[in-house]
Please model this.
Amino acid sequence: MIVDAADVVPEAGAAEEYRAARAGAVLAGRSDLGRLSIRGRDALDLLHRLTTNSIKDLGPGEGTAAVFTTPKGRIRDLVLLHRLEEEILCIAGPGRAAPVAEWIGQYTFREEVAVADRTRSHGTLGLFGARAAEAVAALFGEEAAGRPPHHPLRLTLAGIPLVLCRTFPLAGEGFHLTAEAAPLPALRAALLEAVPGLTPAGPACLDLLRIEAGLPEHGRELTEAYNPWEARLDDAISLTKGCYVGQEVIARLNTYRKVSRLLVRLRVEGAAPPEAGSMLESGGETIGTLTSAAVVPGEGRVVALGYVRDEDAVAGKEIAIGGERGARATILGPAR
Model:
């Protein structure tokens, strides 16, 4: 995970951060995420033709998750598209704003579409945890906390304009707050002051919560080695929309049940996390690859994510990591 200087906050100990997320809520910097502003009368139509989900009918205040894929149906990036009155705010993976903008540009010909990189001019804070929704409700009202995932809402806090969106949940619930970069430290301070018990959390805690939740990340689980079905991104795929880049392959994989591997959550024995890229084996046969792993602080256990053959993606199945002399692991269930 890339860390922006604007995201550096005083952190509690790793174990305290983790407990805070599980019992309450944590505040984490997410300025590592890419941010794009997409404008123009043809923006929705173009995104509809470039991504896996239905985009063209999104109204202001609505949003969705979608995947940019290659013509072979492989993952370029998972993005969150938030339609505002005057623009579409696109939240991309860490360091992915420029590649996503370039990809859109490759398919822009006569369309009236303008893409601007807002990664530096704006920043994002993440509010996550078991009581994150309660915190948002206390700050902005029950309606704001209960909006559908990815539906944006323009608000202010301490006089600072921001865009609030429910996002993929970590340790219970998740929200993104995106604002201009200059007042972001003041926004962070206002949140910490307004929410009793809200704990600052660093990238290590956030990555652990991500792995526990089974949420894939670009560069680990989300690469051109995999397709969206394998990464369990079903909620980012429409099977009823028209053609888009990679659509034929993705539709065929679903129709003919050709998905041969799936992302799963793992519990690993021992106190040290295996390296990403380690082979996953069963009966002396390679069945997949480990993609992420992290230690749960204070509990002496390791959680991980990895791709395994579809027939091996069974909860309770015991496997080996890096050969029979390597660590042992148990498949907990599907990612997400």
